Amino acid sequence: MELYLNATSPYARLVRIVLLEKGLMDAVTLKWCDPWADDVDLLKANPAGRIPVLVTEEGTTLSESMLIAVYLDSVSPNPPMLLAANLGSVLHLAGLGQNLMDAAFTTVIARKHYGNEIDDSELVQRRSRAIQRLLKQLNSEFGEEPQASTINLGDIAIAVALDYLAFRLPEMNWQEEYPQLLAWHSGVTARASFEQTAFA
């Protein structure tokens, strides 16, 4: 398999963590690229020019990090990222993580192209409010939970989104405002898969 990615995409990092957790990293060739440079090979794999993209052994191209994660879960069932017994709960958390990731990522991209003055726009303000609501909800859902010894797709999506916030939007300083969420996050990101894929 081949995976098109870069080092700062939260979406690509989510897929890398799933690969590591499932012991599939040796089965994948990493194709590092710049999605903003209209990389020819990337565009061939995904005409949208977005990463990550997974090319399967059969030559099928898969885009969107969550869909790639679901596919990888089917390729290597153990350890499962999506448990049938609590599928609804895992997908609920994965959705919250995806929404947080999206709000943070689109804010970063808007600043990249239009400067920080874009922060005053209604669109960025709406994203900022969404981030605060999501953080508050996550803090309430994870604040009292003991750290599990296993990990699922929901955990990965949320922890990656929180890391991305700290990496790209440090002024939000969610760690200080939500110490219970920070305690949960610290437990998850102590795993080798997170340490090996840390944003830099």
TrEMBL record:
The keyword Nuclease does not apply. One of its GO terms (molecular function) is transferase activity. Residues 1-80 form the GST N-terminal domain. GO terms for cellular component: cytoplasm. InterPro entries: Glutathione-S-Trfase_C_sf, Glutathione_S-Trfase_N, GST_Omega/HSP26, Thioredoxin-like_sf. Keywords: Transferase. Transmembrane segments: none annotated. This is Glutathione S-transferase N-terminal domain-containing protein. It comes from Vreelandella sedimenti. The lineage of its organism: Bacteria, Pseudomonadati, Pseudomonadota, Gammaproteobacteria, Oceanospirillales.
